[in-house]
């Protein structure tokens, strides 16, 4: 029997990024006792890295903007595979969530007349991203943390204990969810510093663990993005959807090698930056897909006029959705028109005065100067695609964020559905707040509705402890693997075989390799003891990465079309029949099974927001029978 530290809460939130903190605030405001558990330091999450801004149709810079336009843009960006109810809630509620942040202490950049300023971003019809320079995520996390501190001060006044109702457990990794019958009963984990085990008993758990980028070699994501939440949900019996859709951001740094993949924010293009190949050609005009032809300028003069007169001109093609721009860059480099280091040029220096660049893009200026010795006010950057975001995630009920497992909720990047096959820039930060809040509400009302608290079996605790300790026992077996080597090979294989452009044969090869990685991960051995042992941490994370990578590869093999963040070289077109199907992943044995799930038909008042001419690009004729004709 394993003796361990125990804590009991009403709601346990796993993850302290934007989604987790907003969920925790809501649950606490609903009167629940809440634990926030995060594997990194408190305040260090992907949310803090967000640069460009948060999308919300406030109409401050262009009064034509409203939630319906935002909804339309989001559905178009996701190529109509989005869960339309989530896209609707998101577009309707995002402005309130942004304003609410200012009541928590955030201060966004302002327009001349004092309103929250909004900037252009790819795929958004109007300037829509509220921002704080290019450090928006920092302000978001700072103000959510400030709100938590303020709630703790209220609790101190009421109870004499700051942590009476909300407590943060930082540098603590959850390795397993525990259940009582079908329902969630808590989570098991370890303190990263001491290696000691810890148990959280709770009738409701909110997953807010972010994404999976560390399964790929070139990524903008940091060490925490090992798909833990996705894997925890799967092993607890929940399902994942849309896992074939991975967003490769078009602009990551390509040089020097030590920083390859680090993000170059889309704001550079939103604020006027243009993409050129090694021949100096502004190549994006060659890559405007049919579905977007009426919305994007087909010549430089019109594209440039758009920055000062957006109402009478079409947008520059550099601001197409990310999947389109990433594929275009990939094609230019493959065609031999890349930069010396295998990217393309992104130039803002000839488009804005140096002072303006330093004011609008301070982090980018600093990042390139420090890491690549490039002054972006005087020369072009070299950029290329980098694995950035996973559209797929835990299948949730849109209004409550509850998964298919009672008591298990998910919000933020770990949840699936909202972004369909491709996310628009800025729509993640707003997603975190809208669905973080809803998850906190959903978890609280779930707890209120329970007749009795679930209980955890000691045998389940013992087996979670055995599972976590297994990498120490592997050292005693025959064949021994180094977890770092297996991780590096997994990343290379996912990049090469299930990356930005995919082929059936290559995905099959990836699946064979994943079977080998599974065996090798079981033999991944660590030495020493549990006190801060990064090799052990990686050996545990590796099993999650392999499970989640299998979801990506299996779903990618089944979807025989190209859409958003899933491009099949052998099936280059978008197929309207595939729009009607989602792919759902569940655990089967030590692997994953993928089945088809029909897409829910969009509510007719929402469908009516689109012209028939546009819908015809995505829907079959019989589906559109009865939809209104063009006026
Ligand atoms: P995160 O903020 O990543 O938080 C995840 C949390 O889960 C962390 O606290 C982590 O420690 C914890 N965790 C993970 N696993 C475990 C575990 N096993 N046990 C305990 N804790 C765990 N989006 C926009 O909308 N606008 C932008 O301008 C923008 N810029 C970006 C720039 C960069 C460089 C990057 C990488 C992303 C950017 N994004 C942007 C995307 C956006 O930042 C992320 O999608 C979003 O922040 C994810 O938030 P989250 O709350 O879901 O997860």
Short descriptors:
four-stranded mixed sheet; 631 residues; binds flavin-adenine dinucleotide; Succ_DH/fumarate_Rdtase_cat_sf; five-stranded parallel sheet; flavoprotein; oxidoreductase; globular; SdhA/FrdA/AprA; alpha/beta
Bound molecules: flavin-adenine dinucleotide
Q: Whole-Å distance between the termini? A: 72 Å
What structural class do the secondary elements suggest?
A: alpha/beta
Strand order of the largest sheet: 7-3-2-11-18
What profile does the largest beta sheet have? 5 strands, parallel
- Tally the helices: 20
Oligomer: single chain
Task: List low-pLDDT spans.
Answer: none
Q: What's the Cα radius of gyration? A: 24 Å
Pfam family, one: Succ_DH_flav_C
Domain FAD-dependent oxidoreductase 2 FAD-binding: 10-429
Domain Fumarate reductase/succinate dehydrogenase flavoprotein-like C-terminal: 487-583
InterPro entries: FAD-dep_OxRdtase_2_FAD-bd, FAD/NAD-bd_sf, Fum_R/Succ_DH_flav-like_C_sf, Fum_Rdtase/Succ_DH_flav-like_C, SdhA/FrdA/AprA, Succ_DH/fumarate_Rdtase_cat_sf
């Amino acid at each position: 029997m394993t003796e361990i530290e125990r804590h009991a809460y009403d709601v346990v939130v796993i993850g302290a990024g934007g989604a987790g903190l907003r969920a925790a605030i809501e649950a606490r405001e609903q009167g629940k006792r809440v634990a926030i558990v995060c594997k990194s330091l408190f305040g260090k999450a992907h949310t803090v890295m967000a640069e460009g801004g948060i999308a919300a149709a406030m109409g401050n810079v262009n009064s034509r903007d409203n939630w319906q336009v935002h909804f339309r843009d989001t559905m178009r960006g996701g190529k109509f595979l989005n869960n339309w109810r989530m896209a609707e809630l998101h577009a309707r509620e995002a402005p309130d969530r942004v304003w609410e942040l200012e009541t928590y202490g955030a201060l966004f950049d302002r327009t001349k007349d004092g309103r929250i300023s909004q900037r252009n971003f790819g795929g958004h019809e109007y300037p829509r991203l509220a921002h704080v320079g290019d450090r928006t995520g920092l302000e978001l996390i700072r103000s959510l943390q400030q709100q938590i501190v303020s709630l703790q001060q209220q609790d101190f006044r009421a109870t004499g204990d700051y942590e009476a109702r909300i407590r943060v457990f930082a540098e603590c990794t959850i390795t397993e969810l525990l259940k009582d019958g079908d329902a969630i009963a808590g989570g098991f984990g370890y303190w990263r510093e001491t290696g000691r085990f810890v148990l959280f008993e709770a009738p409701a758990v909110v997953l807010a663990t972010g994404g999976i980028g560390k399964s790929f070699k070139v990524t903008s994501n940091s060490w925490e993005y090992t798909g833990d939440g996705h894997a925890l949900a799967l092993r607890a019996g929940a399902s994942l959807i849309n896992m074939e859709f991975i967003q490769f951001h078009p602009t990551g740094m390509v040089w020097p090698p030590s920083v390859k993949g680090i993000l170059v924010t889309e704001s550079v293009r939103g604020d006027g930056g243009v993409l050129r190949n090694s021949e100096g050609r502004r190549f994006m005009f060659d890559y405007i897909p049919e579905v977007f032809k009426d919305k994007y300028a087909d010549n430089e003069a019109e594209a440039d006029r758009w920055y000062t007169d957006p109402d009478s001109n079409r947008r520059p093609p550099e601001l197409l959705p990310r999947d389109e721009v990433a594929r275009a860059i990939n094609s230019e480099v493959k065609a031999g028109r890349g930069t010396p280091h295998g990217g393309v040029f992104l130039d803002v220096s000839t488009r804005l005065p140096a002072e303006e660049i330093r004011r609008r893009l301070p982090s980018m200026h600093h990042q390139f100067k420090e890491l690549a010795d490039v002054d972006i006010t005087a020369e072009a950057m070299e950029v290329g695609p980098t694995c950035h975001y996973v559209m797929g995630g835990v299948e949730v009920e849109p209004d409550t964020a509850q998964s298919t497992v009672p008591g298990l909720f998910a919000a933020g990047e770990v949840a699936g559905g909202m972004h369909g096959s491709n996310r628009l820039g800025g729509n993640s930060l707003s997603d975190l707040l809208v669905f973080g809040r809803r998850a906190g509400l959903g978890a609280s009302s779930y707890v209120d509705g329970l007749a009795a608290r679930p209980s955890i079996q000691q045998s389940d605790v013992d087996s979670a402890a055995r599972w976590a300790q297994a990498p120490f026992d592997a050292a005693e077996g025959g064949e021994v693997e180094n977890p770092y080597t297996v991780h590096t090979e997994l990343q290379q294989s996912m990049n090469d075989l299930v990356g930005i452009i995919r082929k059936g044969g290559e995905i099959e090869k990836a699946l064979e390799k994943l079977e080998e990685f599974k065996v090798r991960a079981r033999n991944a051995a660590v030495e020493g003891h549990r006190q801060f042992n990064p090799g052990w941490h990686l050996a545990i994370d590796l099993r999650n990465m392999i499970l989640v990578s299998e979801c990506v590869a299996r779903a990618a093999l089944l979807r025989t079309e190209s859409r958003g963040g899933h491009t099949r070289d052998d099936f280059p077109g978008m197929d309207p029949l595939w729009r009607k199907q989602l792919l759902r992943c569940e655990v089967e044995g030590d692997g994953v099974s993928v089945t088809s799930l029909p897409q829910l038909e969009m509510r007719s008042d929402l469908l009516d927001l689109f012209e028939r001419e546009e819908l015809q690009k995505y829907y079959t004729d019989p589906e559109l029978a009865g939809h209104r004709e063009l006026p």
